[in-house]
């Protein structure tokens, strides 16, 4: 094992680096080492011959990287399915395909960014790759920017030179104070105890920063798709959809359990009315255990969803709770060699032993 450790140190050119730092730096050299040494192929082969399992990849944005290369690799080495099809197979005894021994994989996109239509949909049709998108009906209907990008966006477009917010004055001509204000705004929005509180905070920030209306509507980075685009994607047969709450609050932060239930139930009801069929899968906003809470899991079950995915890292087996399914983080700007090593499990294996 020391041979591999020394190899990593040479490749990274820094003996103090760990696998996390290598990944964040791009990790292409180490990813190439795993891939061309045959380790990725070996671990992928071993996964195919273990008990039934399912990989669910979790993307958000589709632009700004090389999604095409990701899809070409995934299509070749994994059996790609829509989420519902994959989960029905996973939880059906003897449901594993006898003809195709490749590990089943689902490609999911959270939130319904506009580039899921302009980039991911185009590639899904061209390469004939199924994808699943988790939608937020409230944003589809309003067309508003997603709240988690509003702190940086509104500060960036602010006309005000000074602003008093959350008990402190900020000079917006100072890059440091602009960054600090962005962080404070993000924290207020993230920890809001209700959607109403969050929206009131957003309105206050917009007013205080004096954001010109032309600037407020120009930035497309955090905009959702439209219903027309969703329907077009559905009609293609290559895109399926799941629910992601009505307005994307962090469910464990909501003070009223009734609002938790409403966010989940209204999401499913609205999607089913718009899409004309059952919606059975749900994705928790943010998705870590601390962001979910017991009330949210109960609400998902009560609303009639059959499955729910988290952002907890891992591969799923038939023994896993269908309402707490794991996913593997997918980043469109990550090199495909790094993605290949992570999906096979070899990256995490060496991360665990090399600390």
Keywords:
single chain, 355 residues, TIM Barrel, alpha/beta, 50% helix, two-stranded antiparallel ribbon, disordered N terminus
First-last Cα distance: 12 Å
Q: Which quaternary structure do these chains form?
A: single chain
Please bin the fraction of helical residues. 40-55%
Could you tell me the mean pLDDT? Answer: 89
Number of domains: 2
CATH class of the largest domain: Alpha Beta
Q: Report the count of strand segments.
A: 10
Rg measurement, Å: 22 Å
- Overall structural class, as computed from helix and strand content, comes to alpha/beta
- The dominant shape is globular
Report the total helices. 18
Summarize the topology.
Blueprint: H1 2-12, H2 19-24, H3 28-36, H4 39-48, E1 55-59, H5 67-77, E2 79-80, H6 83-90, E3 104-111, H7 114-127, E4 131-135, H8 137-142, H9 150-156, E5 162-165, E6 168-171, H10 175-190, H11 195-209, H12 213-216, H13 227-236, E7 239-243, H14 257-275, E8 281-283, H15 289-292, H16 294-302, E9 307-313, E10 325-329, H17 336-344, H18 346-353
Parallel strand pairs: 1-3, 1-10, 2-3, 3-4, 4-7, 8-9, 9-10
Antiparallel strand pairs: 5-6
Helix pairs in contact: 3-17, 4-17, 5-7, 9-10, 9-11, 10-11, 14-16
Give your account of this protein's structure.
This protein is an alpha/beta fold. It folds into two domains: 54-143 and 223-331, Glycoside hydrolase/deacetylase (TIM Barrel), CATH 3.20.20.370; 147-216, no CATH class. The chain is built from 18 helices and ten strands. Strands 1, 2, 3, 4, 7, 8, 9 and 10 form an eight-stranded parallel beta sheet that branches. A hairpin with a 2-residue loop joins strand 5 (162-165) and strand 6 (168-171). Helix 4 (39-48) packs across helix 17 (336-344), helix 5 (67-77) crosses helix 7 (114-127) and helix 9 runs parallel beside helix 11 (195-209). The longest helix has 19 residues, at 257-275. The model is unreliable at 1-17 (pLDDT under 50).
């Amino acid at each position: 094992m020391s041979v591999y450790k020394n190899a990593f140190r040479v490749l990274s050119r820094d003996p103090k680096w760990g696998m996390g730092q290598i990944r964040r730096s791009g990790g292409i050299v180490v990813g190439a080492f795993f891939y061309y040494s045959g380790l990725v192929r070996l671990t992928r082969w071993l996964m195919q011959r273990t008990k039934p399992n399912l990989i669910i990849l979790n993307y958000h944005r589709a632009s700004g990287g090389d999604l095409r290369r990701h899809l070409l690799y995934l299509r070749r080495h994994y059996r790609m399915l829509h989420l519902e099809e994959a989960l029905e197979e996973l939880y059906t005894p003897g449901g594993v395909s006898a003809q195709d021994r490749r590990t089943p994989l689902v490609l999911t996109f959270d939130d319904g960014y506009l580039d899921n239509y302009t980039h991911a949909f185009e590639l899904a049709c061209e390469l004939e790759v199924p994808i699943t998108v988790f939608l937020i009906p409230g944003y589809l209907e309003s067309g508003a920017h997603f709240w988690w990008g509003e702190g940086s966006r509104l500060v960036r477009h602010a006309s005000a030179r000074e602003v008093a917010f959350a008990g402190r004055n900020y000079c917006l001509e100072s890059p440091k104070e602009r960054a600090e204000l962005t962080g404070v705004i993000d924290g207020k929005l993230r920890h809001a105890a209700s959607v109403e509180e969050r929206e009131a905070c957003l309105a206050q920030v917009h007013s205080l920063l004096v954001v010109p209306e032309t600037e407020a509507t120009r930035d497309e980075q955090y905009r959702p798709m439209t219903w027309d685009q969703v329907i077009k994607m559905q009609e293609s047969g290559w895109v399926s959809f799941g629910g992601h709450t009505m307005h994307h609050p962090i469910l464990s932060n909501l003070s009223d359990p009734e609002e938790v239930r409403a966010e989940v139930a209204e999401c499913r009801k609205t999607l089913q009315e718009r899409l004309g069929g059952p919606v059975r899968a749900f994705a928790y906003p943010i998705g870590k255990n601390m962001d979910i809470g017991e009330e949210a899991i109960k609400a998902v079950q009560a609303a009639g969803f059959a499955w729910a995915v988290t952002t907890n890292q891992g591969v799923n087996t038939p023994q896993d709770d269908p309402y707490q399914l794991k996913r593997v983080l997918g980043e469109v700007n990550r090199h495909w060699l790094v993605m290949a090593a992570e999906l096979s499990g070899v990256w995490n294996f060496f991360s665990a032993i090399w600390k």
